[in-house]
């Protein structure tokens, strides 16, 4: 098994890394204790968590390039939308740490064992459905027997991926916070449902949500219009377009203003047309919203995403990074929501298998790109002024989500949507000050300059 650890040569970071190591070793010991499947208060053995091999570097499949982000092969605009409301869920695999590797200036990766062979990976991914389900935060939305019968179908494979991502990320967050997630299953009368996992007022996280949704039914005319406006040619039968949509989504709002907010969402959409053929596409991304600029954190976050993208195509990271900067932009403020990451939508080439492989690589970065940053700043002191600045920046986060985010807007306009899950992304607290502008030369002014002029971090 491959294992990793991140640390810095400065003493504070080394102390944090040691604490991280101790916590994970403690987790390994606890992994030997009995546990109950689907219990929100018991974690499965760390060695059994899918994703324990996430950090090994295998050879990725190369994708066809679409050129500039946001354009299809024909040059048509590919403005995507999250076609199901903020339901989805998120990720975190606990990793066994076997050593410390230090290097100046930024986080480092250490592989402590041999790489996993393609055969081993295939066996792991195609393992027994029931056994994989035992590691989830809740039984999956789709009945397990139905998943077993359709094991090879993409909708089943994607549902298993989003459920695993949710469980792994939740348990990683619980490990650092010490709290537990409230696991809330919900059903959609029109078809499907979801699992919302939320932790409020923890020691580290003021509000942490990791959601999964798996919904199906017939597209509303409004939804069909949105898709046609993006260039989709949809041929329904008797005015109906059967669809299935699923995804995992997470937003984490920490208490400490030196720990960034993080968001990610990975989703799959499938439509059955009049002749029985299916259209499908993937979408998603991961982005970081720090309150203060930290060059080392920004490099680590973006470089982790770049490595995942580069396994599939060298143009993916630069294209999807630009797309992310354009999408998470608060137009009425003239600033981005954060320092970005990657974002893509309507991904339907070069093949379904290769697109899924790419999405899987992206989903598996959510723990390694974020948790080392959390551990690094866990005990950073902060002032009331810094806390106030965090509240102001959270206000901007709310503005983007309610005014521009396509997933939120789509969800609020869709019959049967679950409002609590849609608005899970909003912080527990925020602040709006009239005519607020940070003083020149301050750290707050530096942060604002970065948001008004997006940078390249890798």
TrEMBL record:
Domain of life assignment: Eukaryota
Catalytic activities: coproporphyrinogen III + O2 + 2 H(+) = protoporphyrinogen IX + 2 CO2 + 2 H2O
One Pfam short name: Coprogen_oxidas
Top-level EC class: oxidoreductase
PROSITE patterns: COPROGEN_OXIDASE
An individual GO BP term: protoporphyrinogen IX biosynthetic process
GO molecular function: coproporphyrinogen oxidase activity
Any single Gene Ontology cellular-component annotation: cytoplasm
The keyword Ribonucleoprotein is assigned to this record: no
Pathway(s) this gene product operates in, as recorded in its UniProt entry: Porphyrin-containing compound metabolism; protoporphyrin-IX biosynthesis; protoporphyrinogen-IX from coproporphyrinogen-III (O2 route): step 1/1
Keywords: Heme biosynthesis, Membrane, Oxidoreductase, Porphyrin biosynthesis, Transmembrane, Transmembrane helix
Keyword ATP-binding found: no
Parts of the chain that traverse the membrane: 81-102
Entry's EC annotation: 1.3.3.3
Family as reported in the entry's similarity comment: Belongs to the aerobic coproporphyrinogen-III oxidase family.
Subunit text: Homodimer.
NCBIfam families, per the entry: PRK05330.1 (NF003727)
Name of the featured protein: Oxygen-dependent coproporphyrinogen-III oxidase, mitochondrial
Gene field: cpox
